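Quick illustration, no need to memorize.
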Amino acid sequence: MAKIKLSNISTRAPEKLDKKETKERLEKILEELDELQNLLYAEHKHSVLVVIQGLDASGKDGVIRNVFGHLNPQGVTVQSFKVPTPEEAAHDFLWRVHQHTPGKGMIQIFNRSHYEDILVTRVHKWCDDDTAKKRMKAINDFEELLQAHNSTHILKFYLHVSREEQQERLKERTNDPAKMWKYNENDFTESKLWNVYMKMYEDCFDNCSRIPWIITPADQNWYKEYIIAKALLDLLKGLDMHYPGLKK
C-alpha cells in the first residue's frame, strides 16, 4: 500500500462537483440511512464503529450533528476521549476504549479515539517511538478482535482540513457568540505544531491501516458530510440485512 502524504491530498471538493446537487444527494442518503439504521437495530447481528479523527476545528462535532443527528438516537451513541482520568491511566491504554465499543445493532461514534494515544502523546513526547509502535500493534489487534468476535464493522475518517481553514475557524471562536463556548486558548498553541501532527498522522496511517482510513477533505462542510454519509450508506447496504420474522 502506497504511503499517504497529506500535503499531496486536497482538502476541498473536486472543482467540477456541484454543491447543490451534492447536498441534494446527501439528503437522499440521510433518508436511506434512517431506514438502514432501523434494520441494523432490528436484525441485531452487526454493529458499526465510526472513528472520527482530525485536528482542532476540522469539524468533528458538525459531522456528528449533521449526519448522525438524523438517525434514531436509540441506536447511536457518541463517546469522546479526553485526558485519561487517574483510574483510566492506571490501566492499559485501551481499557477505557473497550468499554465503549458498540453492541450488536448499534452505531458507536468515537469523537477522537484510541488513536490519540499514538498522536497527541507523540507530538508532546509523552510517548516514545518504541511504546508507540507497540500501541499501534495493539490497536490493529484490537480492531481485528472487534471485527472477528462481534461482527463490528469499522469506518475510520481523518478530517483533512487545511492550515488556512483551521486558522479561520479558530478565529471565528473568538468573535462568533454561537462558537465562543468552543474557544480554548491552547488550540492556537497546538496549531503551531501543525507539521509534527502531520508527520504523526502519516505514521499512524502507515502502521494502522489494516482497516483503511478514509481521508476526508474537510474545508467544505457539505462535501465532508457527503463523503461520510456515503461511506456509511455503502457499508450498511453491503451487510445484506433482513428484518427478523415473528418471534415463536
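The radius of gyration is 19 Å.
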